[in-house]
Amino acid sequence: MIRTTDDGAVRTITIDRPERRNALTPAALKALETAVTDVAARVIELRGAGSAFCAGADLDVVADLAADAAAGTTDQAAAFARLGQRVARAIETSDAVVVAGIDGPARGGGLEIALACDLRIATPAASFAEPGVTFGLFGAWGGTHRLTATVGRSHARDIALSGRVVDAEQALDMGLVSRVVDTPRSVAEEIADCERETLTRLKSLMNTAETADRTIQEEREANVFAALVDANADTLQS
Q1: Its Gene Ontology molecular function terms (predicted)?
Q2: What is the pLDDT of residue 205?
Q3: Deepest in the core among 68, 107, 139, 237, taking most CB within 10 A?
Q4: pLDDT value for 215
């Protein structure tokens, strides 16, 4: 499901499950973590296969978590949230600059994975949403913090509380993406021309300024996610 190709200074990581709009299972999340951690390239381009970037968490996995909650335990739901958070942190702290090349929908956890990247580069076909609120969940992979930090409180609350879809140009206007281009790979190659050590140190300095309060926020996210899986178990299993 996670396919990796190295080409000089750029590693391309493809979430390759187009029949499920690149929805992520626990195994895929762990493979993605490995792919962004064990890397010698200066730049990673993270992309989705087919017509979507990533639909977020696999709904079959969510249904299983809901079944566990209905049976009396939310431990697996909290663990799944923490796994997604761990992968997002691995992307954020990778020695490589991670460029999300978003060509098609980024939904829920897919948007959260994109938010963990250093740059989000969209094509005109890209769109973004946090639809979990419409069926009783929310983004629990660090998204409540990163979305607000990226687009500000007003836009973040609008996206998170309404579940509405934001197109590429709207995303550019609010700062959710840096550029709208036909080929995101070109931006990854542009950055790969820069000196590696400088890129790594600059990224680290920027991250230090942004992540001070995230650990506390992520623990709250995991706990609230588990509670909502429990509260909405019947709906999530249907």
Answers
A1: catalytic activity
A2: 85
A3: 139
A4: 67
What does pTM read for this prediction?
A: 0.93
Output the pLDDT for position 214: 66
**Which of the residues in the chain have pLDDT under 50?**
none
The domains located in the chain, with CATH, are 2-237 (3.90.226.10)
In percent, the amount of the chain with pLDDT more than 90 equals 72
Instruction: Kindly list the distances between the CA atom of residue 197 and the CA atoms of 19, 90, 112, 168, 220, in Å, as whole numbers in the listed order.
Output: 39, 18, 27, 32, 35
Instruction: Give Cα separations from 219 to 28, 101, 175 (angstroms).
Output: 22, 29, 26
pLDDT score of 44: 98
Q: What's the chain look like in SS3? A: CEEEEEECCEEEEEECCHHHCCCECHHHHHHHHHHHHCCCCCEEEEEECCCCCECCECHHHHHHHHHHHHCCCCHHHHHHHHHHHHHHHHHHHCCCEEEEEECCEEECHHHHHHHHCCEEEECCCCEEECHHHHHCCCCCCCHHHHHHHHHCHHHHHHHHHHCCCEEHHHHHHHCCCCEECCCCHHHHHHHHCCCHHHHHHHHHHHHHHHCCCHHHHHHHHHHHHHHHHHHCHHHHHC
- 5-to-13, 22, 114 alpha-carbon distances in Å: 7, 17, 19
